[in-house]
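Hey, I was hoping to borrow your eyes for a little while. I've been puzzling over a protein and I'd love to understand its fold better. The fold is given in discrete form, as structure tokens running alongside the sequence. I'd be grateful if you could look everything over and explain what you see. No rush at all, and the record is pasted right below.
>
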Amino acid sequence: MGWLWGSKNPPSPPSSDTDTDPLRDLDPNLRAFLDSETPPTQPAPPAPSPPPPPTESDTSNSSTSPKVPAESLYPDGRYAHLWSTYRPLQEIKLATQTDQEKLQEVLEGYKDRKTLVARAALENCAMEQSAVDECFKTGGWGSRMTMCRAENRAFNRCYTMQSRFLQALGYLTANRPPAEEEQIQMHADTLYHRMLAQERAAEAAKAADEAVPTFPPLLSSSPAQPPSSSASPSESLPLFSEPTPMAKPERPITEDDSDPLTPSARAALMERIRKLPTAEERELEERAVTMEAWAGMHTSLEVQRVHNTQVSERKERREKGNATVLDAINGWFGF
């Protein structure tokens, strides 16, 4: 049956080409109407052509592009007019700092290094500190009655010895990369646990009425050797290294430039370390105090360098006739 407005002619039999056409049974007039109402299909956009290879002129233009600092996100020279007046923060800080602020920064840097030593020692003694906390929370009555004396004693000794190991290994020295500071911290922890193992072996030998074994010294004064590829991580660092050129100043305090301590300070140190029980602790205390003296000497030389720079700058301003009121006041007092 055809459509009411369609033709009465019967539909033609399907051909092989229209077997799969879902609209093959529609009336031709209806199909023509649908085709007229269907919007025309848009042609597919052409594929983008590949960019042309750079020519010699483009290469020369890129090489002559304006220079921008490393902080810029566009190294090709964009926004170079905005970066033309850029100054790094450190440069601005040095230019705007007063003389007092420069000296204060040097002294605060030395105090910060001491704070970092205490923090690194606490990190290395985290297990001992956790044992003290667990003793107070879940310890027996005997431990609580004695205020966890054994655990507190182990923690206090760990903190003291770790601090000494860090100082002896040069942790107080400024301007070290973070990776080197982490290696020093790990090596100090290794040396401390090696010392505890040696003490346990000596006590076990005494309890068994055997000869106390001899151990190599924990700290060695030999110069640092480069680690071999087959060395373990605990052996990759030297047991002890001499102060770096930055930590060991050019100008000695005493006639012997290898000793930063004065004769009176050295005598007082030797008198104090004689009271320590073991030879390892005596050597460790001597090395730690020596390295602390090197760090203090470097700080004093840094303060002297800042002072000399200030004097030369004031002299230059006076010669140019740009002296300030503060320069005149400093001149009255001989600075």
Notes: The CA atoms of residues 132 and 151 lie 5 Å apart. The radius of gyration is 40 Å.
